[in-house]
Amino acid sequence: MLTNEYVKRVYAQVEKRDGDQPEFLQAVSEVFESLQPVVEKHPEYEKAGVLERIVEPERVVKFRVAWTDDEGKVQVNRGYRIQFNSAIGPYKGGLRFHPTVNEGVIKFLGFEQILKNSLTTLPMGGGKGGSDFDPKGKSDAEVMRFCQAFMTELCRHIGQFTDVPAGDINVGAREIGYLFGQYKRIRDEYSGVLTGKGLEFGGSLARTEATGYGLCYYTQEALRVLKNDSFEGKTVVISGSGNVAIFATEKAQALGAKVVTASDSNGYVYDPDGIKLDIVKDIKLGHRGRIKEYAERVPGAEYHEGCKGVWTVPCDIALPCATQNEIDGESAKALVANGCKVVCEGANMPSTPEAITVYQENGLLYGPAKAANAGGVAVSGLEMSQNSYRLSWTFEEVDNKLKSIMENIVANSLAAAKEYGHEGDLMLGANAAGFVKVANAMVAQGVL
Ligand SMILES: NC(=O)C1=CN([C@@H]2O[C@H](COP(=O)(O)OP(=O)(O)OC[C@H]3O[C@@H](n4cnc5c(N)ncnc54)[C@H](OP(=O)(O)O)[C@@H]3O)[C@@H](O)[C@H]2O)C=CC1
Ligand SMILES: N=C(CCC(=O)O)C(=O)O
């Protein structure tokens, strides 16, 4: 609940101005609740208007994307790039291609990205972009033509020292390659303007694995510090079967857990013997199939239509890795009833406020997305470092840096939580720790 007058006043402005953007309001509300003890301790932030400024993007770019499909029919989509905050570095954040994309969704993602990027301690500001383009069912040629049309406009606004996009939902290696090629063609510039690039043209080893691996490094460290426990012998429920889910599964299994689920937007599979990741990779990475196929290929595995049921599967640890608001209050209660003690978020904002309340009331270890899934953007930052050095580090070098960054995020979150009177609160600590660095930079740079 908001009680601090400054926080309440600014949030009321956001509600008035952006009332048609529910996901953005949800993201701001959670952060603002955490920041109340911070602004009370730092009156200089109110004097400098930091909250009023941090909730207003520095720039919103919205553009038409016209392209032709394989039948020669003209298609029109909307493109966005929201350059939210550059106080601590160039704008940095993913691109999402999904029919649900609108300005409010990109603003929630971009706002989360500001604090997430700060937590990595790397010099990256916050931004996000994407389009309502749906790659599902499109040919490679159609995806290429869309990406080329999208980048033809976007390239006016980005650059290695200005704004560095990367992947997110439905933007993977294929899309980044097409986007990179078009940027290079138009700007005649060979630079690290995107991350998640192919290894042949400046990509970083371990970037593909980074978000999922980082989620598990974060969870493992939080379990060690707070519960003197680990993944060893635990049953884990994971949602999604894309980039984050696949590599979270891989690392959780490597750390001794049994992962029993995977999902996509049609439904989920439950494998009591443990997910066979090679089969999931073949389905998803090999031929872009549906997760239903897993149950047809694996004896003993069950397929269930609809995604919500995944949260009724008994587990010790839940790692949501699909999309925002996939766990509501009812699903959170089901998790608790079935023994879940840990929820760490791989997806961005996958828990509703009601779900978070259930976690807190039942004493679950809750690792918020902006901290737990920061491994992806962290290795993106390391890709930018390698591009600047014009050299490549080994997988082990990058993976070791990633693990250290994620463990550091746990430590800094807990230190901030203690400083602001909420010892052990990983959500408040992450919001506070991420915010203070950005706020201090905004104060130092003047009112702009
Ligand atoms: N890629 C990255 O570097 C990072 C991603 N994230 C976040 O992680 C989450 C997953 O992203 P990523 O793995 O990259 O994306 P992918 O496109 O690789 O995978 C997304 C997965 O989530 C499922 N999904 C997407 N939308 C919905 C929906 N509305 N309902 C149910 N399932 C859905 C997809 O199923 P289907 O195939 O049927 O659509 C797919 O299995 C997102 O929240 C993203 O913002 C966070 C940090 C970094
Ligand atoms: N989609 C991402 C990754 C962003 C990036 O690597 O720039 C995220 O942090 O949500």
Automatic annotation (TrEMBL):
Record Gene3D superfamilies: Glutamate Dehydrogenase, chain A, domain 3, Leucine Dehydrogenase, chain A, domain 1, NAD(P)-binding Rossmann-like Domain
InterPro entries membership: Aminoacid_DH-like_N_sf, Glu/Leu/Phe/Val/Trp_DH, Glu/Leu/Phe/Val/Trp_DH_C, Glu/Leu/Phe/Val/Trp_DH_dimer, Glu/Leu/Phe/Val_DH_AS, Glu_DH, Glu_Leu_Phe_Val_DH, NAD(P)-bd_dom_sf
Xref: CDD domains: NAD_bind_2_Glu_DH
Protein name, as recorded: Glutamate dehydrogenase
Active site: 128
GO biological process: glutamate biosynthetic process
The species this protein was found in: Bifidobacterium merycicum
Residue stretches making up the Glutamate/phenylalanine/leucine/valine/L-tryptophan dehydrogenase C-terminal domain: 204-446
Site (Important for catalysis): 168
